[in-house]
Amino acid sequence: MRIDSAAYAGYEIPPQYDSMIAKLIVKGEDRAEAISKMRVALSEFIIDGVETNVDFHLRLLRNEFFERGEFDNGFLNRTDIMKDG
């Protein structure tokens, strides 16, 4: 696992911030292992003070079609992943 970010505890994100405040990277022997590692890493990833898309990514990683690698450019439009909850 690797986290690339310039943010740190106490950092104030300026109003014109780049929306990607951190990049979380995992690697596995195969797709299933990488997805499993990313689920754990995201579930433990804490960013306070700003809204994030961590929950969206966790929903995506739980989608059976995404898990199997069965997705394309229209994938998000055909699923309910974009919905909160």
**How far apart are the first and last residues' alpha carbons, in Å?**
27 Å
Net shape: globular
* Main sheet makeup: 2 strands, antiparallel
**What are the secondary-structure elements, in order, as H or E?**
EEHHH
What's the gyration radius in Å?
14 Å
Query: Which segments are poorly predicted (pLDDT under 50) over 5 or more consecutive residues?
Result: none
Strand residue content: 5-15%
Query: Which structural class do you get from the secondary structure elements?
Result: alpha+beta
Strand order of the largest sheet: 1-2
Instruction: Enumerate how many helices there are, as a single number.
Output: 3
Averaged pLDDT, please? 89
Helix content range of the residues, please?
25-40%
How many E-type strands?
Answer: 2
Indicate how many domains the architecture comprises. Answer: 1
Quick rundown:
With 85 residues, this protein is an alpha+beta fold. The chain is built from three helices and two strands.
Describe, in plain words, how this protein is organized in 3D.
This protein has 85 residues and is of the alpha+beta class. The chain has one domain (22-85). Helices cover 33% and strands 9% of the residues. It has 3 helices and 2 strands; from the N terminus they run ββααα. The chain has helices at 31-44, 54-62, 64-68, and strands spanning 2-5, 22-25. The chain has a two-stranded antiparallel sheet. The chain is globular and about 40 Å long. It starts with a strand and ends in a 17-residue tail after the last helix.
